[in-house]
From TrEMBL, chains A, B:
GO terms for biological process: coenzyme A biosynthetic process. Residues 163-276 form the DNA/pantothenate metabolism flavoprotein C-terminal domain. Pfam families: DFP. This is DNA/pantothenate metabolism flavoprotein C-terminal domain-containing protein. The lineage of its organism: Eukaryota, Viridiplantae, Streptophyta, Embryophyta, Tracheophyta. InterPro entries: CoaB-like_sf, DNA/pantothenate-metab_flavo_C. GO terms for molecular function: catalytic activity. Gene3D superfamilies: CoaB-like. Belongs to the PPC synthetase family.
Amino acid sequence: MTCEGKTSDVEAFFASAPSLRDEDTIRQRVQVFIDEHRSRHNRLVCVTSGGTTVPLERRCVRFIDNFSSGNRGAASTEYFLKADYAVIFLYRGGTIQPFCRSVPDDALLTCLEPDDSHGIKVRAEFYSDVEHAIRGNHEGLMSHKLLKVPYTTLFEYLQILQIIATAAHSLQRLAMFYLAAAVSDFYVPWESMGEHKIQSAGGSLAMQLAGVPKMISVLREGWAPNAFCVSFKLETDQTILIQKANDALRKYRVHAVVANELNTRRKKVTIVTANGDTVIERTDQAPDVEMELVGFLCEKHAEFISNGQYT
Amino acid sequence: MTCEGKTSDVEAFFASAPSLRDEDTIRQRVQVFIDEHRSRHNRLVCVTSGGTTVPLERRCVRFIDNFSSGNRGAASTEYFLKADYAVIFLYRGGTIQPFCRSVPDDALLTCLEPDDSHGIKVRAEFYSDVEHAIRGNHEGLMSHKLLKVPYTTLFEYLQILQIIATAAHSLQRLAMFYLAAAVSDFYVPWESMGEHKIQSAGGSLAMQLAGVPKMISVLREGWAPNAFCVSFKLETDQTILIQKANDALRKYRVHAVVANELNTRRKKVTIVTANGDTVIERTDQAPDVEMELVGFLCEKHAEFISNGQYT
């Protein structure tokens, strides 16, 4: 295992993490899903979406959160399903779900209303968006092409990602990881964390956070070394973005890094690969930038499946 | 203005806060609502609910969050409406809404399904919960007894609370503040905050957070000095809880402090007043602890309205 994800750091991280709730159930659901698609020789992508939290106290009142609406992960899942991939959607609870991008916040209260005959109905102005959401989700689940697995904390995210990646190793090059989740870089190690709520009597508060071991290296080298792996780089400062994406490509040995800037991320991304950069800008005709992004990556993945490499 | 909410600290806090989006609209909605209920001599309560976030960067990617589902605020709002109060529900976006406590997470996808005639319908097992949610919410809004105002950050929460409290001053003793939201004790002052995403190259991260001025004092002394004011104290350590609630009662000069412990908060609360402590425990027959809690506080408020004090 190389540089950025030292075995000892990674082992220490997992050893000190709180145990994953429902681990057996999650492991079984993932295994059954992957086995089914392996037997059919289907392509499978694990799309991670939303942001992780980092608890600051063991009996958690306060935590650090990484903001992400989940829009990119939800959109990309829709396009991967359309491209006939099986999708494991590893998402932060409460973030945007596939087929639900047009549904408003607080959807139930906003979209439904009492009707005249003492029942309830969908408001006319939301009907087509709600129908799209319910039908898309239902078809994904019923066809066994979509498996949704929620997480909240950084610990849960990495524990579940490990379960998925080690199981997906059996798919070899047919598996893709599309790591769009916003994962914390820093955390409070569980054993150094206070049992009780931090007391505020002192006036101010100094916090010391440790770096999270870079698990992408571990995924690439240990968990699923033959899978096609796409990571994401989000910055607010355009001037350092492409350089950092190139650094990540080399350091973590992923197949592509999708570089995006906070303010323009819905309109433009740059896909950085060993063969150069590809800029994707949303045209006026396109519903979003993910359609072309996913299309591009599906092509690269197809080349990779055939040749073990891509251009 | 006394001890804990020094005028200079409070002024500095508001002066350095980012400006409130839609301030004029919020101010107008609040004013119209309060004016209507003042003209009808109605009792009015401002229920705060959910937890505040504290941004760690100006172009916010990371933030500290205070966990709160919003269950207590939502439940209490229902009982205040039943007791014929007008309610301003100041809630964290995405937390539990009044009448929606029985509705599952991810309600739209969970509660609706395609029907046989190419439409969509509410799943039978969720029908009565969904109907209760939609009708309760609709009646609250249509009767003009319920005003819902969302916030996300600590800055937004305190700015909106100030707007509500200064407007509610005109109601004199008919106004109540029921401050159930989980408000950050620490924050990063806006002017000392980085413009860009914190860089993780260094490995670990040290953060210095400042104490938030205690706005309850300011509410009591400056914004709405004649309103009945109830604050909440949540601890994970039972041994310090009642002492801290008593400290808060004295320091902030509120009329009651509701003390609750993280693990037992759904079953038991202690109401600490100048006249002693009252323990409320949920019985097997009661749907929740809030029914009796709100009933108790409505009685105290009624005494306070009649006499300017309570027993």
